[in-house]
Design goal:
The protein is of the alpha/beta class. The chain folds into 3 domains: 3-60 and 167-333, Rossmann fold (3-Layer(aba) Sandwich); 64-159, Rossmann fold; 340-517, Biosynthetic Threonine Deaminase, domain 3 (3-Layer(aba) Sandwich). The chain is built from 21 helices and 20 strands. The longest helix is centred in the first third of the chain and has 16 residues, at 11-26. The radius of gyration is 28 Å and the shape is elongated.
Length: 526
Amino acid sequence: MSADSSAELPLDRQLRQGILLARERVYHYGQATPLERLILPGNEPGPEVWVKREDLSPINAYKWRGAANRMALLTAAERDRGVVAASAGNHAQGVALAAKALSVRARIHMPRSTPRVKQDAVRQHGGDWITIVLSGDSYDEAYEAARAEADATGAVYIHAYDDLQVMAGQGTMADEVVMSGHGPFDTAFLQIGGGGLAAAAAAWWQTFWPDMDLVGVEADGQASMQAALAAGQPVTLANVDIFCDGTAVRRAGTLPFAICRDTLSRVETVTNAEVGNAIRVLWETLRCVAEPSGALGLAAVLKHRTALAGQRVLIVITGANIDFRQIGLVAQTQSLTPRASQTLRIRLPETRGSMLGLLGGCFAGLNIADFQYGKNHAEIAWPIFTVTADDPAALATLPARLDAQGYEWESLDQPDDVQFRAIPLHGDLLHQPAFFRLDFYERSGALLDFLHARVRDLASFCYFNYRQSGERIGRALIGFDFDSATERDAFIAAMPTQGPGFRTCRPVDPSTLARLTGSNLPPPSA
């Protein structure tokens, strides 16, 4: 069939034909990726999950397929003019890979905020054939700059998703799933940015498995396809959350929208916390460190785990190009504990023993994952705790226990002061403070054991800063206050530097004490 007659076909048939023809092109640039079984952790019912490992592709993301297919179709004259593209990372690497293989000059516009690791990866794949141009602070600004350059120079613009041949290239991923012999599947969860991958995969799988439920997944704060479906046409979002940076697109593609509208049964959203939890599960099961957008599909599966029980479910890890520093950010979120968690602010009387009474009473059997407190009132304390439990039912009883003991409390959803650990401490309310750096062995109950054994009713807490990090050693900065210097010095003298359950406990240096308390109180003698 000629190109002219192909253009007369309906869009979905053009896409399917394009996927067939892309088979011959894309494998000059990379090989098929594995389809693997993922065993969900835990004993609760769940689906049989199969994972398409696009993180194991030549650029550790699926985008090489579309870029390679589109650029392989360049005429000799177009190759001479060169290409221009805009990308926050993965599409840029795909264009770079193809540019080097085809000896085509490429200028790739990337936002100024693009991490250095992603820029270096583009240079590695493209070598001397590519030039990176840092344009604007967002993908949209980089896109506008790239389109302006293409219009001015005559270079060919290679779109990241709103191009039929780019979509056809992405569709070879779906073709590999069909050819694997592991199908059919009951449900597939497909992440959506601009929609190119979801559209191509949905069109292809619908052809072979017409009863398959095809579900689009977007992150909260960037649901451009969901907004397009609601409006009946692509619309531009005013703001886009960029935690899942690989899918942070303000406007769904026109071509992908036309396909997704007719193939997807629905589009749903997941939270950043649910994405973080999915990243953890991928690491614990497949030893895969997915980028946030790469874990969207699994996040939806985990969200509906019980409802999907008994089904055969398909997801795609679309990429693993995560900045190393972002791994630390993800690891610090509450969602990355394998346990249920809850963050609470609890009112206590500012009296000696009240904190330990709470910890040893209502918190019995629970794990403290985060503890923030600074004395800022003479009579009332409002410490903030994040507590976790292996058994969600045990955590669910905590509010009733607090109510039964007469505690006033409120549930928190990571407000700014908690997220940024803004722990207020009024030094003018302190008498004779002493601060310690405590390193203890991170096991259930270890921190509470230390406090009961070493503090008891000998001191009043004036400060506590501790966050579970996932290491074998927990680290806390703890402040105590005393009525007299004699009482304080006796407490310090009795505090061992090592002991059962903890590795080190040492007083902080004078400058740290002064900064914390805002005073020039003499440091305690060790």
